[in-house]
Specification:
Blueprint: E1 18-20, E2 25-32, E3 48-53, E4 56-63, E5 76-80, H1 87-100, E6 104-109, E7 112-120, E8 128-130, E9 136-142, E10 148-149, H2 179-187, H3 201-204, E11 244-245, E12 258-263, E13 265-266, E14 269-270, E15 281-286, E16 293-304, E17 307-312, E18 320-327, E19 330-340, E20 353-356, E21 363-365, E22 369-378, E23 402-408, E24 413-416, E25 432-434, E26 437-443, E27 452-461, E28 465-468, E29 473-478
Parallel strand pairs: 4-5, 11-19, 21-29
Antiparallel strand pairs: 1-10, 2-7, 2-9, 3-4, 3-8, 6-7, 12-17, 13-14, 15-16, 15-18, 16-17, 18-19, 20-22, 22-26, 23-24, 23-27, 25-26, 27-28, 27-29
Length: about 475
C-alpha cells in the first residue's frame, strides 16, 4: 500500500480512481478548418503530425506543392493537397491516406476525420502537432485507457448489504461473513463487482489520521495472509454404524435415532446405484440373516454420488442386528450392527482420553486431499487379560462431537481455527465418524509447502463445553 497506484493487478478493469479501465483502441479527432492549401504545408519537415499506434510512431505530413518534404528518419506518410480543393476535400484525402497506412483506420464526416489505432492500449504518447499547421487541429477523442471516473469519490457502492468489523488493537485480521452478498451474486440479483474496504465515515472525514492502515495484498509474499473468499460448511458424515444404540426411554427421541450410510464403491470409485439413482432407498432391520424383521421399513435418501443414508431406530434387546438396503424388491447391501444400550450411572464420570494417529505420514503432497484418521481410547484403560491374550485390533472410541485446528509450527500461526459451529456459523472443522472411528479430509491446496504443521483436537462435553485435548500431531507439506 505504500506504493499504491491507480492500476489494477493485470492492468485491466477498475481501480480506486476509475470505474472502468479496460484497454481499447485510441481514437484521434482531426478537424480541417481552412480551405487554403498553404495552411497545411510541411515545409522542410517542419510542420507535421506525430501519431502512435500504441507504441509504433507514424509521422503524417501534407504537401501543398510548394516544396514541402518529409524527414530523414522514421516513418513518414504524405497527403497531397489539391490547391483548388476545400477543407472537406482535404479531410477526405487525408482519410484515404490513413486507411492505406498499416496500423490505422479512418472515418470522415464532412471536414472531420476520426483515426482509430489498430492496437488496443494507451499510446506511448498522444497525438502531437509539430510546428504550425494553421488549418488543422488534432485532439484525443477516446483514450486507449477508456477510463471513466467514479460518480462518488472512492467508488460507487451498493447501499446494502454492508458488513462491519471493529478492531480492538488494529493488529487483528479482517474476517467477515459475506454470505448474504455472495448468495445474491449466485442468484443473479446483484452483479459481482467485488468488495470495497473502507473506514467508517467519521474516520474518513477526520482532518488527521494516526498510524498507517494496511492490509496484505493478493501478491503478498506471505501466502497465508493474502485476502481470500472462503466457503465454510459442515461436511462431516456422522455414520452411527460403529455406535448403534437400541431405543430407550432414558434417551430423548433425537438420541434414539441412528444414522446409517451406504457407500456404493465400484472399481475404486463411488457410483450411484443405477436402479436407484438419486431417489429414495429402503432399509429394513432383521434379528439375523434370514431372521425376523424388526419394526417397519425405513426410507433413506441420496447424499451424494454413490452415498446413501437413512435414519433408523430399533426397539430390541438383541446385541446384534442385520441391516438390509433394498429398492423395488432388489437387495443391494446387507450389513451387520453391534447394538449398544443406554445405561444410567450412580455417579458423574469425567472422561479423559488418549489420542493417536497411527496412519499419519511424515509428509503430504500439496494440492491434494488426504484422509486423516484419529484413534481414541479412554485414559487409564485396563482391559482384562485371562489365560490367553487375544491378538486383535482394539476399536477406537467414537467421539460424536469433535473438531480439529491446524497450526503452522514455526510461529504457531493458526491456519484453520476451530469451527465448532454456532447459530450463525457451520461446524466447518467437525470430524466425521464411521465404524472405524473419527476422521476428516484435509485439502492441502491452501497450505504453503516447505512448512511443518500440527493438528490439535477439541471434544465437546455437555457440562464443560469444548475441551482441547493435550496432543499435537505434526506433518510437513511438500511440493
Amino acid at each position: 500500500m505504500d506504493f499504491y497506484e491507480d492500476k489494477t493487478k493485470d492492468g485491466v478493469g477498475s481501480n480506486w480512481i476509475n470505474a472502468s479501465g479496460d484497454n481499447i483502441s485510441e481514437i484521434t479527432k482531426f478537424t480541417f478548418s481552412s480551405d487554403t492549401a498553404s495552411d497545411y504545408g510541411a515545409a522542410s519537415a517542419a510542420n507535421y503530425i506525430k501519431l502512435y499506434n500504441y507504441s509504433t510512431l507514424v509521422n503524417f505530413w501534407f504537401n501543398d506543392g510548394a516544396g514541402d518534404s518529409a524527414g530523414d528518419t522514421g516513418t513518414w506518410v504524405v497527403t497531397t493537397i489539391n490547391n483548388s480543393g476545400s477543407k472537406n476535400d482535404f479531410a477526405s484525402d487525408f482519410a484515404k491516406v490513413v486507411n492505406a497506412q498499416s496500423g490505422f483506420s479512418a472515418n470522415v464526416a464532412s471536414n472531420i476525420v476520426y483515426v482509430t489505432a489498430s492496437t488496443a492500449g494507451v499510446a506511448t504518447a498522444h497525438v502531437l502537432e509539430v510546428g504550425t499547421i494553421a488549418g488543422l487541429s488534432a485532439e484525443v477523442h477516446v483514450s486507449g485507457a477508456n477510463a471513466t471516473a467514479w460518480t462518488s469519490a472512492g467508488g460507487d457502492y451498493h447501499a446494502s448489504p454492508t458488513f462491519t468489523k471493529s478492531f480492538s488493537s488494529g493488529l487483528e485480521d479482517l474476517e467477515l461473513d459475506v454470505s448474504e452478498l455472495v448468495e445474491q451474486w449466485i442468484a443473479g440479483t446483484k452483479s459481482n463487482y467485488g468488495f470495497g474496504v473502507k473506514l467508517t465515515d467519521s474516520t474518513e472525514a477526520a482532518a488527521k489520521s494516526f498510524f498507517t492502515k494496511k492490509f496484505f495484498g493478493r501478491d503478498s509474499e506471505f501466502l497465508l495472509q493474502r485476502p481470500v473468499l472462503e466457503a465454510r460448511w459442515d461436511s462431516a458424515r456422522r455414520d452411527d454404524r460403529g455406535s448403534f444404540y437400541a431405543s430407550s426411554s432414558l434417551a430423548p427421541a433425537e438420541d434414539n435415532l441412528n444414522t446409517l450410510f451406504l457407500y456404493n464403491r465400484i472399481r475404486g470409485r463411488l457410483r450411484n446405484i443405477p436402479a436407484v439413482g438419486t431417489n429414495a432407498i429402503r432399509v429394513s432391520l432383521y434379528s439375523s440373516a434370514g431372521g425376523t424383521k424388526l419394526g417397519s421399513t425405513f426410507t433413506g435418501s441420496h447424499v451424494s454420488t454413490g452415498i446413501y443414508s437413512c435414519n433408523v431406530t430399533a426397539s430390541t434387546t438383541a446385541t446384534s442386528l442385520v441391516d438390509v438396503w433394498h429398492s423395488g424388491g432388489v437387495e443391494y447391501f446387507t450389513g451387520s450392527l453391534s447394538v449398544k444400550s443406554f445405561n444410567s450411572k450412580g455417579y458423574n464420570p469425567e472422561d479423559t482420553y488418549v489420542l493417536s494417529m497411527p496412519s499419519l505420514r511424515k509428509q503430504y503432497r500439496k494440492d491434494q486431499t488426504h484422509r486423516l484418521n484419529l484413534y481414541v481410547r479412554e485414559k487409564n484403560w485396563s482391559p482384562n487379560i485371562h489365560t490367553q491374550a487375544v491378538r486383535s485390533s482394539i476399536p477406537s472410541l467414537i467421539i460424536p462431537s469433535a473438531s480439529f485446528q491446524l497450526r503452522r509450527c514455526i510461529d504457531d500461526y493458526v491456519v484453520v481455527p476451530y469451527g465448532t459451529g454456532s447459530t450463525t456459523e457451520p461446524a466447518y472443522t467437525a470430524l466425521s465418524h464411521d465404524v472405524s472411528g473419527n476422521y476428516f479430509d484435509l485439502d492441502t491446496t491452501y497450505l504453503e509447502a516447505g512448512y511443518l504443521y500440527d493438528i490439535q483436537y477439541s471434544f465437546y462435553d455437555e457440562e464443560n463445553g469444548w475441551e482441547e485435548q493435550p496432543y499435537r500431531f505434526k506433518f510437513r507439506v511438500v511440493d
